Task: structure prediction
Amino acid sequence: MERSADVAVIGGGILGLAHAFAAAKLGKRVVLFERSQRASGASVRNFGMIWPIGQPHGEMHVLAMRSRNIWLELLKQALLSYSAAGSLHVAYRDDEAAVLQEFAELAAGLGYQCQWLDTTETLKRSGALRPDGLLGGLWSDSEITVDPRLILSSLPEFLRERFGVQFRYGTVVTWIELPRIQAGAEFWKADCAIVCNGDDFETLYPEHFATSGVTRVKLQMLRTYPQPDGWLLGPALAAGLTLHFYPTFEVCSTLPVLRRRIAEETPEYDRWHIHGLVSQTAQGELTLGDSHEYGMFVDIFNKVEIDEVMLRYVSTFLRAPDLTIAQRWHGVYAKHREKPYLSFSPADGIRIVTAPGGSGMTLSFGLGEKTVQEMGL
Ligand SMILES: Cc1cc2nc3c(=O)[nH]c(=O)nc-3n(C[C@H](O)[C@H](O)[C@H](O)COP(=O)(O)OP(=O)(O)OC[C@H]3O[C@@H](n4cnc5c(N)ncnc54)[C@H](O)[C@@H]3O)c2cc1C
Result:
């Protein structure tokens, strides 16, 4: 039996859900196909940080802010919990303070709303920081934190109930020749297809991915037990290593000094591309990470050394009651070597959108809206 929809979305990660939402909001009949019984790709394995401050100024920051605003509307409509506590990038070294202060001066002109806080003001924003040696921090209220596990399990239900989106889990799409789509044992007809395949470069359009400039990135992550007595992290935290990781701070003339010092003093951080970020779930657990290993082949085993280095780094600025690790995992995302994400049409009516790198949660709903506009839906 052949079934039909206006729009077929392939992939049930956050990009697939965001595109399904964007098309369904326009009144389209949407079906979404996901290979696994539950989404288990990058989207359910991340920090849940909606992090516009991580985007470089201009087009990408504007897109991230638009995405953040759609996130907020949707979270409220779907009654899903989130934290709008903002973010703090903290400085314990002179070179870190120099970059953050320089950025704070440039920020308003570049479209960011953030400010440099001295030590006392920084500690007022977060009781989770080690006071010894703290020089100050960059405060921004734009960042929000969601629980990816909650989002990936609850959002499909909301889209089904509110917009009639149909979901086919445990269903791999192996062939698309519009209007016909082969999805597992079913044949579907759709006017157009949006492929949000994450890092699966082998099933659909392998010939395009082979030459597209994408690669895989593996990240190790840690999660603590719930913190005792309702202890709250407050804003999500980032520190010195983040400053040479996100392109945002490349406008700062003070950045090369910080980069040189990290490379000379702590090459193990550079070796594993460690990036000390901390967020908190509604249950009080702290999510800590992350590391980055680049390449198409992904080692299925985690490296104990990476976990140790990450924990050591995070402990230089985080003062939480209990850093006992309850869960360890890794995630893999697709990344383009030069572009912030990949969006192209391999055939009429078909759009592939993937490889938003470490910013897919942040950009998802902005990208969904942009794609449906560009496709003229
Ligand atoms: C550890 C970690 C931490 C991160 N932290 C953050 C963060 O805090 N903030 C942020 O903005 N970003 C973060 N990211 C990045 C973000 O998670 C990704 O960019 C984003 O999840 C990518 O979403 P996606 O939908 O493209 O991919 P995925 O979530 O991997 O989903 C792709 C889905 O498509 C399915 N699929 C593929 N091919 C087919 C097919 N042919 N048929 C059916 N189904 C198919 C797969 O099964 C998969 O479920 C992090 C990533 C990781 C790994």
Observations:
- The radius of gyration is 21 Å.
- Residues 42 and 160 are 22 Å apart (CA to CA).
- The first strand starts at residue 2 and ends at 10.
